[in-house]
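Hi R.,

Here's the chain you asked about this morning:
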Amino acid sequence: MTKVLFIRAEWDDEAGVWVATSDDVPGLATEADTLEALSAKLDRMIPELLEANGYPNGAEIPFELLARKFSVARRALA
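And the predicted structure, written out as tokens:
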């Protein structure tokens, strides 16, 4: 079984984008407005970065995208 690559995505509130990085994919650092757009970018970038770094070829490259966003909810004052 092929190793599942772990990708972290964190919301950058100041920039208004999701930022993805990974210890499993050398050189991976990208951003997108939505998680869907970020996932689509990763579908293209991960194989390219792995090939550039000499990782073994394979038809499929499984990855897990873990997203984290810090928020504060506020109560309506009565």
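Residues 5-68 form a domain with the TTHA1013/TTHA0281-like fold (CATH 3.30.2390.10).

Let me know if you need anything else.
M.
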